[in-house]
Amino acid sequence: MTRTVYLNGDYMPETEATVSIFDRGFVMGDAVYEVTCVLDGRLTEFDGHMARLARSLKELEIPCDISRDEWLEIHRKLIELNGLQEGGIYLQISRGDVGDRDFHYPPAGTPPTVVLYTQSRPGLSTDPKADEGIKVISVPDLRWHRRDIKTVQLLYASMAKMAAEKEGKDDAWFVEDGFVTEGSSNNCYIVKNGKIITRQLSNDILHGITRSSVLKMAQEAQMEIEERPFTIAEAQAADEAFFTSASAFVMPIVEVDGVAVGSGKPGSVAKRLREIYISESLKSAI
Ligand code: PDD
């Protein structure tokens, strides 16, 4: 099916949406993005994603004056035009088209390039992977040091996923100075003696919108939380492990670098948090 996508103020078939070869996103990876999940035809965590988008734009000084309400209208229109029930909306803003390759930012007033499109993922909330749990490998974290900004510079994340695939595993965890930073496209957690352990927020990791909600829900459910870095050895000796992201919610992890975590089956904390997160997200979706 040909999607209807959004490009710089217009809705059009995906086959007609084209961007300049000089676009800063294409030439320099000079762009930020968000992925907002859609469940039951509605947006989950919309305001969280828009707040992080505004922060990414501000940190990189990319001008964009689209308001929260305008973003909402665009997201909703794409859902409607594409009949999206379950999946997500990808949003990308680049610094625009400079008319040539140049390291310097374009002159003030250069409009950003704004692209949004839907990604249909039927069965997202009932993914059988969540019943089995996934397996991860670890790789050194070779990314830049502003991981709190959600840029499209995803080559290393992509390489990490391919390295995992080559080993017959599902995903990769990044390790820096002996500690896990995050997953290739998610935030990660271990559980030991009932306590949820996850790295604290800093420029070392993306400030996950799902992370923020899941920790709040865990707290409300009287679960103990400790925000600190952990090692691969600690994860391998943990009772359970899981990750969070907008596109997979809470996903149990059952193996780290070839070692089974806990019983080697999804743990009860991850399962419970997944249930709570999906049901709360459905309730608050807009
Ligand atoms: N990835 N860390 C990284 C490096 C990520 O790329 C993501 C999200 C997260 C989780 O953030 P959130 O809970 O806000 O989705 C953490 C998205 C889903 C992606 O790139 O497709």
From TrEMBL:
EC code: 2.6.1.42
Record GO terms (molecular function): L-isoleucine-2-oxoglutarate transaminase activity; L-leucine-2-oxoglutarate transaminase activity; L-valine-2-oxoglutarate transaminase activity
Pfam families the record matches: Aminotran_4
Reaction(s) this enzyme catalyzes, per UniProt: L-leucine + 2-oxoglutarate = 4-methyl-2-oxopentanoate + L-glutamate; L-isoleucine + 2-oxoglutarate = (S)-3-methyl-2-oxopentanoate + L-glutamate; L-valine + 2-oxoglutarate = 3-methyl-2-oxobutanoate + L-glutamate
Alphabetically ordered keywords of this record: Amino-acid biosynthesis, Aminotransferase, Branched-chain amino acid biosynthesis, Pyridoxal phosphate, Transferase
InterPro entries: Aminotrans_IV, Aminotrans_IV_CS, Aminotransferase-like, BCAT-like_C, BCAT-like_N, Class-IV_PLP-Dep_Aminotrnsfr
Keyword S-adenosyl-L-methionine: no
UniProt keyword annotation of Transferase present: yes
A single cellular component GO annotation: cytosol
Cofactor: pyridoxal 5'-phosphate
Job of this protein: Acts on leucine, isoleucine and valine.
Homology family: Belongs to the class-IV pyridoxal-phosphate-dependent aminotransferase family.
Descriptive protein name: Probable branched-chain-amino-acid aminotransferase
Source organism per UniProt: Antarcticimicrobium sediminis
